[in-house]
Structure formats: C-alpha cells, structure tokens
Amino acid sequence: MSNGRFPIQTVNAISPVGLQRLDRDIFDLGTDIAEPRGILVRSADLHDRPVPQSLYAVARAGAGTNNIPVDKLAALGIPVFNTPGANANAVKELVIAGMLLAARSLYHAADYTRNLVAEQGLSGQALNEQVEAGKKQFAGFELPGKTLGVIGLGSIGVLVANAAQSLGMKVLGYDPAVTIKNAWQLSPNVEQVESVEELFARSELITLHVPLIDSTRGLVNTERIASMPRGAVVLNFARGGVVDETAVLQALDSGHLHAYVNDFPTEAGAVHSRVITLPHLGASTGEAEDNCAVMAVDQLQDFLLNGN
Ligand code: MLT
C-alpha cells in the first residue's frame, strides 16, 4: 500500500465483474460504467439516480445508509451492505475530543485570541491585558465524575462508553434496539437506564450514536433538553435529524445548555457562538477510510463472486 491509503488498483484488480473507482464525488450511474454489477459509495446521494439494470449489490463505506434508497433496492432484490464498526474508533476519538473542546470552550477561546490579534490588531501589553480580561468567560469544567449519557450502544457507542469511563466519567446507556445483554457485556460498567427520559434527566453530557430512522428523528427535543441539568452539553455524531436544532439553539441562548458539538453543519449552527460545528468529520481518518473501503470491497466481492 503506498502512503497508507487504500490502493485503488486493488479495487480494479479484484473485480472481474466490473467494479471501478470514479475519482469524483458523484457516481454518474449508467454512463461512466455501462453495466455496473456493484456500486461502492461513501457520501454521494443515490436516491434520485436510476438503478442500472445490471446492478446486483450496493455497498456503503460507512455505517449509515441514509444516502442509499435501501427500500427501493430491496424491492428489486438488491442488497445494501454497510461497514458497521469499521470507523468506530475514529468516531470515538472525535467524541472524546468534542467533549474536551466543549468542556474547556477551546474552539471559541482560540477564536477569541485570534480575533484580538487578527481583527483588533492588538500586541504586547495591550494584547496581554485583553487576554487576561477575556479568559474568565472560558473557565471550564473537568470530565472525571461527570455523567455521560450514551444513546445507542452499537460499535461506536460502546467504544465511547469505555473511553469515557477510562477518563473517570460515570456512564449511563440507553438503546432499545441493541440486545441489552450484549451491550452490557461489552461495556460492563455502563449503567443501563430504563428510559431515554431518565438518561436525559441524569446526564450532564449526552452523545448520540443511533441511526436516523422514524423513531429517532427529533429525539433531542425541547422537553428532553429542559430535563437535563443546567450547563449540559449535547454531542451529535449520529445524524443531523436526530436533534431538533431549533430547540438546542434556544437552550444555548437561554444558558441552559453550555455547548452543542455537531458534525452536521447548518447555517444557524455554524455561526452560533456556543456551537462547535464540524464538516461531518467523524469517520475522516486515513485508518477509518481504509477500514471502511476494505470491508465494503470484501462484501461486494464476496457477494458478486461467491454469492455470499
Ligand atoms: C458513517 O455513516 O459511518 C459515516 O457517515 C461515514 C462517513 O463519514 O463517510
């Protein structure tokens, strides 16, 4: 492998049935490859694309499948594979980074200092005075002893729970979809709560690791935020629609929430002074991209060549 990245040649080499890589964001189905048997996609939205007659399978290099018309494909007998777990460590590390950024207001503090120099042109004594005067607003809190609520105990949620415990946090977990027994075996010190309401009411920080489906849309809403302790933090590395952003912004403005870390940018969130907005970076490490690509190709290859 050159430079540690997924070797594109290998994709072609293992694929006597027509897998190719297109070096563009959008797969222009039906013209770039006349008769694709398999499609491997990361973030391109396939919903409005015609389904090629030749297609046998689709693989998503990632956990979520919101960009793929899964039901339409299922009706045609075309399976969709995803890569659960392959990017879990990358997301976990970003969640931990997000908690630290939020707890110490690092993003906004750095912005403050940059502004003093770049926008206000301060230097020397004047800069030092403004630094001293301004730093009180960024006084933070420490993580040990704080309660983290993890919603969704799949591969990412369990890693986050374990990492948070190693930082001395108390971890509550809620996931109606996962076999509770499995989740609790993987993360034995997580306290299982009975309801999502209990988790909100007891958590000073909440992190989301559920897919966007009907039952999770708007899961973080006005009432649940209001039940959280004052000064709480919400981290969203799941999907934008899981959070009612208007409710979050109101709670930030009223001071009820301390910060919102969001991996799904919106205009309102990106300019809010208590929101840390990231450009969907959860899975963006070389290692995670390699893991996802390899797992997705393996699945496609297995299905197309061996029928598994
Ligand atoms: C996922 O669903 O795992 C992520 O959206 C992957 C990605 O960022 O491409």
From TrEMBL:
GO MF assignments? NAD binding; phosphoglycerate dehydrogenase activity
The positions making up the signal sequence are none
State the UniProt keywords alphabetically.
NAD, Oxidoreductase
- The EC class name is oxidoreductase
Q: In which pathway does it act?
A: Amino-acid biosynthesis; L-serine biosynthesis; L-serine from 3-phospho-D-glycerate: step 1/3
Keyword Oxidoreductase part of the UniProt annotation = yes
Catalytic activity annotation? (R)-2-hydroxyglutarate + NAD(+) = 2-oxoglutarate + NADH + H(+); (2R)-3-phosphoglycerate + NAD(+) = 3-phosphooxypyruvate + NADH + H(+)
- What is this enzyme's EC? 1.1.1.399, 1.1.1.95
Q: What does this protein do?
A: Catalyzes the reversible oxidation of 3-phospho-D-glycerate to 3-phosphonooxypyruvate, the first step of the phosphorylated L-serine biosynthesis pathway. Also catalyzes the reversible oxidation of 2-hydroxyglutarate to 2-oxoglutarate.
Protein family: Belongs to the D-isomer specific 2-hydroxyacid dehydrogenase family.
Output this protein's name.
D-3-phosphoglycerate dehydrogenase
The organism of origin for this protein: Ornithinimicrobium pratense
